[in-house]
Amino acid sequence: MPELAAYAVGPANSRGRRIREEAPSGRSEFQRDRDRIIHSTAFRRLEYKTQVFVNHEGDLFRTRLTHSLEVAQIGRSIGRNLGLNEDLVEAISLAHDLGHTPFGHAGQDALAECMKGHGGFEHNLQSLRVVDVLEQRYAAFDGLNLCYETREGILKHCARSNARLLGDLGERFLHDRRPSLEAQLANLADEIAYNNHDVDDGLRSGLITLEQLAEVKVFARLLDEVKQRYPQVSGRRLVHETVRRMIGTLVIDLTQQTRENIREHRPRSVEAVREAPALASFSPRITAEQTQLKQFLRRHLYQHYRVQRMSTKSKRIVKELFDAFTGDLKLLPPQFQESAKIDPWRATADYIAGMTDRYAIREHRRLYAVEETPI
Ligand code: MG
Prior knowledge:
The structure is a single chain. This protein is mainly alpha-helical. The chain has one domain (29-307): Orthogonal Bundle (Hypothetical protein af1432), CATH 1.10.3210.10. It is 62% helix and 0% strand. It is built from 19 helices and no strands. It has helices at residues 29-38, 41-45, 64-81, 86-95, 104-114, 123-134, 148-154, 160-163, 171-174, 181-205, 210-213, 217-229, 235-265, 270-275, 284-302, 305-327, 334-342, 344-354, 357-368. Helix 17 runs antiparallel to helix 18. The radius of gyration is 22 Å and the shape is globular. The chain starts with 28 loop residues before the first helix and ends in a 7-residue tail after the last helix. It binds magnesium ion (MG). Magnesium ion (MG) binds at residues 67, 96-97, 190.
């Protein structure tokens, strides 16, 4: 592994695991975290969970799994250049969406609505719940028993009321402190990944067009650059050549601006990073351009009537699943009946949040369809 900067999370300054374990041999603690994440059930389910387009809408759109891989790729490149712990960036990136419900944000909004008054539902907190509690594969503990720094990175946001229940992990939300630079970076790599792949998937789906995208400054500039250099190129190649330049521009900007921030604040340890203002950031110019791109995507893609129709259907499915189970807990599979005795709403939310898109659709059919369907 390349040498780590003083402000990186290293083996010597990790706060360790909740339950002590023997040190791994032949790999670092954070590589072990990454390996546990990859071998988890929740990770495999990401393949069939919506990013923007519901899984069955097409084979080439991003899913939560390919999104997470892109986040890890972007995060690792930048992390390595900044002397950060690449293994930790990778582990956080691969785990950051483990708690996502089926059907993307529509599913999450519907479940949050159902859980109002029953403890709420936040996908970041659910990702943490997956790695702390819900994965049941190890003999000595529930969850994956990940290192503090990996868990800190997974918990990107959290309401203050929930932060109070989380002990040391929740403290930064109450005292306005930052997580490690590795976590800050994974968070921005997430943003780079989704802004760009949503442009790519949006164009592929035909819901947005290159002509419309001309109103987005950064896209127009880079599209022009490609056209100048390769006048004969069109179609998917033209899109990819532009999108790869967008990713490159953001990666370079984030690296340079973060380097500058580090030079200014001179953090000498992870603790100093946590006390400092957010050190991982884009330059003001790129931040403004990203905001314009996000607004464009919201208006033209996320609020497109065809995406909205799918969202509305998805919300209905999640709500009706929730109503069916909480109305009659005997409908829950046996492995959720025990926890339902303690908290029927949380058990139901855990069950639904774990579903893939297609599983949720099938389960809904099994519970509601009147025609003959196999049990
Ligand atoms: Mg994400």
